[in-house]
Amino acid sequence: MLDLNQYSSQDASADAAPDEQRKKYGNGAPPRHDDQSEPAEGDKEEGADALPVPGSLDEFRVMLEREIGLGASFDVVAREMTFGERRTLLFFMNGLVKDDVLTEVLKRLTYLQPEQLSGDALHAFFTHYVPAVQVDKETKFHDAVAAVLAGAAGLFVEREGTVLLIDAKNFPGRNPEEPTLERVVRGSRDGFVETLMVNVSLVRRRLRDPGLRYEIMQIGRRTKTDVSISYIEDIADPELVEAIRSKLKAVKLDGLPLADKQLEEATVKRGWNPYPLVRYSERPDVVAAQLLEGSVAVFVDTTPSVMLLPTTFFDLVQHAEENRQTPFIGTYLRWVRYFGIFASLFLLPLWFLFVIQPDLKPASLAFIGPQEVGKIPLFLQFLLVEIGVDLMRLAAVHTPTPLAAAMSLVAAILIGDIAVQTGLFINEVVLYMAIAAIGMFATPSYELGLANRIVRIVLIIAVALFSVPGFVVVSTAILVLLVLERSFNRPYMWPFIPFDARAMLAILIRKPVLLSRQRPNLLRPQQRDKMPGKAK
């Protein structure tokens, strides 16, 4: 912790506010912006935000005590000092500032003499005597407090009615490391972290385009979470950018403690639809590639995930590994992944349908079906296995890493093998469930994998109740639901519906870089050509 005592040229009194201030504010309690009083909430907050910074240091200290709990919260630090016969107050949040930056500021201020502040003291502090890279002036009290809560240090100079905000942020955080959900064999090993500035820097390092824009805003009346909209100005569709910006500004919440997921629900408003309408990525190279395509990225402070908008179903099945291999190998890996996703959806319902209606099986598939039926009906076996896989997944998440391998061994050998040997389950159910689970885990988007699991359970129930008509009706209903869905006014099932042959071919085959010359029509980019200088 920074020791401020050694830099004080004259200790100031820390007594309570004068009597006239207590009369003005009622026992030293100036009005709060979140006080539940008679005015409407919008008018109340607007009036509170306009509260000016007072000229008296004693009055300013009383307001800090009332607003941010100075003296009550141990992490709120305020130190009164006198420089050049001018009383000042430095206040900040302990643990959110860099000690060395404030140390240099205080060293410089100790050399001030009264004659150096004979004129405009604020101008002198701002221009000559605060050696920090970023310093701003703030005349509104609550804006100054919000900046300090965000990590800045505030320097109040008596009789000036202004706070100097010194950018000395030093948030607790971790170093960039490879995301666990988007690992690649070849490629970069850095990933996003929980600090917004680190994340935007990782993308800026890859995109040295002067057109790259980062718009910042704060969402949440209490949390004031920093949210940044990122796009390339001469590529992204201006209407798309404005639509995303308007939706974010329209969010009215107390806060975003869960960061991006709460922001997604507040903006996308998908209701009970299990399918994700937002693509998340923790890889800076993936975000940079999508920005070059014309997408818009939304960064939220305190989360390592970045939202990519708009999103289609086929965006959620893409993986960076495909583009780290040759086009042929990338296409092969892509098709293997598609097969796994298809198996996770339809393998169990189709097998169950062939079992209850053997006449549907062609002669070449006569071997499909159990030779013996277990003690539990097949339908219940499916449901129990589905729940069991989910329980094992949840247990793996909450199990300490050294014990995870042992837990998996117990689940796979003891539970699975004993359940089959005792006749509760049959081998085929366990086998096909394992294949479906592998297909789900091979899905790049975790949210899409969970949605496919729900659809698979619904299909199994439909087959158990209505056989072939149930399978056909539910499959058609799910497809229609996805076709009607839209992500920021873009069709969710594009390029399948509406059909775009060129884009569909790019989904099925990983094209070489030099043959991928145009950006997707879906994003309506301002520049369609990726390589304008090349012959079309």
How does this structure look, described?
- With 536 residues, this protein is of the alpha+beta class.
- Helix content is 44%, strand content 11%.
- The protein is built from 17 helices and 12 strands.
- A 5-stranded antiparallel sheet has the order 1-2-4-5-3, with helices on both faces.
- α7 packs across α10 and α13 crosses α16.
- The protein starts with 18 loop residues before the first helix and ends in a 28-residue tail after the last helix.
- The N terminus is likely disordered.
What are the salient characteristics of this protein?
536 residues, alpha+beta, five-stranded antiparallel beta sheet, 17 helices, UPF0353/GerABKA_families
What about the largest sheet? 5 strands, antiparallel
Provide the spatial order of strands within the biggest beta sheet.
1-2-4-5-3
**Proportion in β-strands:** 5-15%
Q: Tally the helices: what do you get?
A: 17
Count of DSSP E strands?
Answer: 12
Radius of gyration, whole Å: 30 Å
- Average pLDDT taken over every residue: 83
Please state the structural category: alpha+beta
- The low-pLDDT segments are 1-45
Order of helices and strands: HHHEEHHEHEEHEEHHEHEEHHHHHHEEH
The geometry reads as: elongated
